[in-house]
Each structure stands twice: as structure tokens, then as C-alpha cells.
Please model this.
Amino acid sequence: MENYQSAGLNKGETHKEEMEHNIAVGLDIGTTKIVAMIGQKNEYGKLEILGIGKSKSLGVHRGVVNNITQTILSIQQAVQQAEEAANVKIEDVTVGIAGQHIRSLQHSDYITRTTSDTVIDDDDIDRLINQVHKLVMLPGEEIIHVLPQEYKVDGQGEIREPIGMYGGRLEANFHVVVGQVSSIRNIGRCVQSAGLNLEGITLEPLASANAVLSQEEKEAGVALIDIGGGTTDLAIFRDGIIRHTAVIPFGGNVITEDIKEGCSIIEKQAELLKIKFGSAWPGENKDNEIVSIPGLSGREPKEITLKNLSKIINARMVEIVEQVFAEIKNYGHEVQKKKLIAGIVLTGGGSQLKHLKQLVEYITGMDTRIGYPNEHLAGNSEEDLTSPLYATAVGLVLDGIKRQERKKNEFRQSQQVVEDKIEDTEETQIEEQEVQPLKERQSFLDKLTQRVKDFLDNAE
Model:
């Protein structure tokens, strides 16, 4: 199409165009569905969704790619739909990673500085973080995320930002997220083979959290539970910092599977039953409420009582919520200074199950609400987009925009450096290598993205 504008960082003109338009693309590769979402910030700083594409995910099991060809096709379908809806050509995407291979651990580490007469700077923090990176992992595992919790300088604790302080010994507690590097490379491979450029990788629980949680909730202490098709992701925040993450390898699909087995019906019917009549609270249904399901090719229809249906759903849902609650207890929710005052926020497709909020409150004793991704969306967004179903996709678009703003700042800073050099020196004396753009400290996810890209380029 001639009138396509580009939605990816390209060379030259596209780079400038991108800088102005700030279009970002989130690609949520889930177990049930793959969503491609194109968005940009409007003049009020809110996210405007330009187009969305959705396809059935056929090559992903519990958040992990198990069929590359199928996944590539599903990605291409979703991307094509989004491109047609937004009239934009997609090049760069920000992808979410989750799946049962993700685990997290707490770790403390320290460095001794050569001199305590100078102030702590970015290099010291980099040195400390890189030290954490040397932790010995299980075979095939790699550190995805290193999140500093709080710092200590010369034994003085509870420091949030040590830069600019004097001190000889710098230590910190870290939340370390670990995952299978082959699973992440497979996702990178699928994205690349679908003709897209991997702009960034983000942890899905973090993306969902950015989309549905307010800053006040993150400060007060909150647990975000994202119930997807194949996995349930947990992210715990307190004092504005992520404190704990976990991925539980069960989601909405297991419930469908249970209904299919328990009622001896096909999967399609089980899924419809769950969505239309399903409830997580058996007491809600009366014994005489019955739904009739057409039999297969001329067979007699099946009659299922709604009470039995909700008993099946309740049994599995209790299991999932109890596993999540065990993780919340692991984090230390019962300790006074770790209390989660804002309680629990449920999001993801599975959070739309009737009476789930009541069940979660009953099991955990914590305040619960359903999280809709409308915190950052423009006011005129379609109702469909504010569904918990799209929380991760919205979070990935927000992450993509943040990345671009960072690149924009680096670009501006490098321009400034050039201008300052020109003022200070005779133009003829300026050598190209002297003018280095200023770079922000790269996050581990940026480094991971780079490593995955390098691996894929070399593997060609």
C-alpha cells in the first residue's frame, strides 16, 4: 500500500518519522491467542490504540513455543490484521516472555570501592549488578532480570538511590528473574522469521502490571495476578518496586480441559460453557438450572447442571488461587513491613470468570479488584480494548513507547554533545570518534534483547 507509514525504526527518514510519531507495537505471544497491538501517545500523554490483530495461538503450550512453524503463521496473521486496521506497516515489535520456565530468587551482593573519597556513580552500580550476573545457574538457564530492591552504603540501610553518596562498601538486595535461554531464543526466532525486528523483550507480568496498576497501588503494596490461557503470572509490588515474580503453569485452558473431561463434551463446547455459564462459586447456582448441549452428529443432546459445572470450575480455581497465595506468603506478606495494603488485582482473560473476585477474597482474605488496562488508555478507546484480556498487549505497547523515548533522549543528548564540541573546538579539529553519544544505563532486558538478536544473526 502506498499510503502506509512505517511503524518501526528504520534508517534515515523513517528514524525521523518514528521520532515524531512515536508509534510502538506490542506482540503478546500467549498460549490461547497472539495479539499484535499498534499504539501511539496522544497530546495528553495517553495511549491511543491505532489497530489490533488477534489470531489463535496454535504453537504455544503453557507460555512456551513448541511448534515454530505454527507460531510464525499465527504471528503473521495477527500482525497483518493489525496493519490493515491501523493502515501502518509494522517493522519493530516489543515482545513479552512468560511461561513455566520462569522462576525468581532473592540474592544479596556487595562491592568494595577503591576509594571512598569519590561519590558513588552509575559505574559502581553497573559493577554491582554485573557481579550478580555471575551467579551460577542451572544448565540452560540465564538471568533475564536483575531488580535492585534496596541498597546499603557502609552498613547504612534502606537507601533507594545511592548515586551521589560517599561510601566504601556498596551492597544491595536483588530480585533475580531466571529463565530458559532456549525458550527465549525460540520466541526471537519466531518473531524474526515472521519478518519482524525484535525491538525489545519484556517480562509479561511486568507489562501487565504497567497497564493495570496505579502508582499508588505499587507504593502501598499490591499483588497482580494475570490469569492467561496456559499460565498464571504473579507480580508483587511494594514501595513502588517489584518485589516478587512467579509463573504458575496453570491457566484458563486447564479449566476448559476439566469441563471437557468431567462433562464428556468436546473442547469447543467446554470453552463456550465456561465463558457463558461458568462460575467460580458453586453456591450461586440452583440445582434445577440445566443447560442442554447438542450431541455430536445426530446423537442425543447432553444435559449438564450449572451446579456441577461450577463445582468443576471451583475445584481447579481453588487450586490455582492457593498456589498463587503460597507465592504471596513466600514473599512475606504476613510480615508487617511487607503487608500488601492494596490487596490483589486480577487481570488476563481468566479474570473474567464470574464470582472469581469473591473466591479470591474468601481464600486469601485480601481486598480484590479486577484490573482493566484503562489506566493509560485515551478516553475514546473502544470498550473491547479495555478488557483484562488485552492487559499484557497494552503493557507491551507502553514499554515500546518508553524505549523509543529513551532512544529519542539519547539522540538529543548526542546532538547536544556534538554542538558543544563544535563550540569548544575549531570545527576542523573535531574527529568523529571524539563525539560519542551519551547512553543511559542499559537495562538487563535491553542487553538480553541484544544477545538474542546477535545469536539469531550468527545462527542464520
Observations:
- The chain is about 40% helix and 25% strand.
- The chain has a mean pLDDT of 86.
